[in-house]
Amino acid sequence: MLGEIHEECGVFGIYNNDEINCAHETYLSLYALQHRGQASCGIAVNNSRIIDCYKNTGIVPEVLTQNVIKELSDKGNAKMALGHVRYSNSKEEVNSFNSQPFVMSYSNGSLSIVNNGSLVNTRKVCEELENKGAVFQTSSDAELIAYIVARERLKTDSIEKAVSSAMEKIEGAYSFLMMTPSKLVAVRDPYGFRPLCIGKLKNSYVFSSESCVFDTIGAEFVRDVEPGEIVFVNEKGLNSIKEHCGKKHSLCIFEHVYFARQDSVIDGVSVHAARQAAGRYLAQQKPVEADVVIGVPDAGIDAAVGYASQSGIPYELGFIKNRYIGRTLIQDKQSIREKSVRIKLNPIASVVKDKKVVLVDDSIVRGTTIGVIVSLLRKAGAKEVHLRISSPAFLNPCYFGTNVKSKECLIACRYDNNIEELCKYIGADSLEYLSVENLKRIAKNSKCEFCDACFTGNYPIEVEADKKDKFSQRIDEYNLTGQIKLEESF
């Protein structure tokens, strides 16, 4: 899916029990998590109980240059480090202030935090704290969580108890890592909306949003952090508290559909296998006579392979993706939009010319680029284009960390989920979404149940009324003709 939906970020942390260069290992890990966020990134290292941090807007190689990593490394053999890559969610502007890691000092020392997700009771908690004199420098949930933990730490004798108390005050999606002068703490919300896993690098412990990071740095996957679990590491080893565990799990199903990298395993299920399963179910739902199956890179490729294996229609590599392009401005004119897509993605004419093509993509959210992609295939000579989507229609906003702000953003809502009319708008010969029933089957061996509210409207937890009001307001992403007025990441 190009230019559609983004998850907020990816996190990484390391507790060093070896002679490991923490800054360098964190840098490599953020490279592996770059797909989870391209708006900003940063690293914080704990050198002799002093936390040094560097962060800025931009992608990993632009922000974390060799000089930056050298400076962070030269300050000593760091005991711990945190890393973060980020997209801005609906609440946060893209600027260096909202970039993470977030570092704060208080009477008991210092804290650094990286977070993935979005709280649903932010306004209520902020107002309560501000009425007691709190001052916040950012619009980031990470700062709010750190502030609450710091307050609770003054009332308790350990950071673990402070975090546990803080979890009773915050609601929503969060998977955060927190670094104190002597401990590294990993926390996943009780519903498990966002993934978080534990690995081991030699004798050192590492934490990441995705297991693919461990392959990158040569670490061994140990296990996933359980929903509601607080894991902490210090010189005595790794321990955990599970007093917040036991609620019904609600892992975001879009991790398997799109967010996660194909080589990751999330809560016991291979992302690659889940996407292939989605393709197979699609082929069963609405068979079509065709000559070739192709997928939109990257998440659509696995589903296309699954579709081809089930249908018996040959799979071919249909597009070449330019992987050296960052964020692109999509403008109102169709010709400019088409050129922008072509810079990022180009069809292979010899694969599609004079053929009936099954085009598989992971989702249609705003619908701003899929029509251009279909047009490119026709210009490359495709006789027919049958669009197959490996997720259901997006019909509801997400309040848990993705950038689906309002039903006004969603093309399926604008067409009242009329598949025939939407198909005409896109320019395809046919269109089929994966059914909700089959979506629930793509990761049937998962250790977690799933949140599918963006498709069904069944939100697992209550959301503040003011947040719903904010999300439901008409935004300026579309004018009356549906033209695009925003910067999108391709």
Question: Could you name the key traits of this structure?
Answer:
alpha+beta; 7-stranded antiparallel beta sheet; 2 domains; Glutamine Phosphoribosylpyrophosphate, subunit 1, domain 1; 30% helix; disordered C terminus; 490 residues; Rossmann fold; globular
What's this, in brief?
By secondary structure, the chain is an alpha+beta fold. The strands form 7 sheets. A 7-stranded antiparallel β-sheet has the order 3-2-4-1-10-9-11. It has a 6-stranded antiparallel β-sheet with strand order 5-6-7-8-12-13, with helices on one face. A 4-stranded parallel β-sheet has the order 17-21-22-23, with helices on both faces.
Structural class: alpha+beta
Q: pLDDT below 50 for ≥5 consecutive residues: which ranges?
A: 326-334, 470-490
What is the tally of helical segments? 18
Name the shape in a single word.
globular
Strands, total number: 25
CATH architecture annotation name of the largest domain: 4-Layer Sandwich
> Remind me, CATH topology of the largest domain?
Glutamine Phosphoribosylpyrophosphate, subunit 1, domain 1
**Strands ordered across the widest β-sheet:** 3-2-4-1-10-9-11
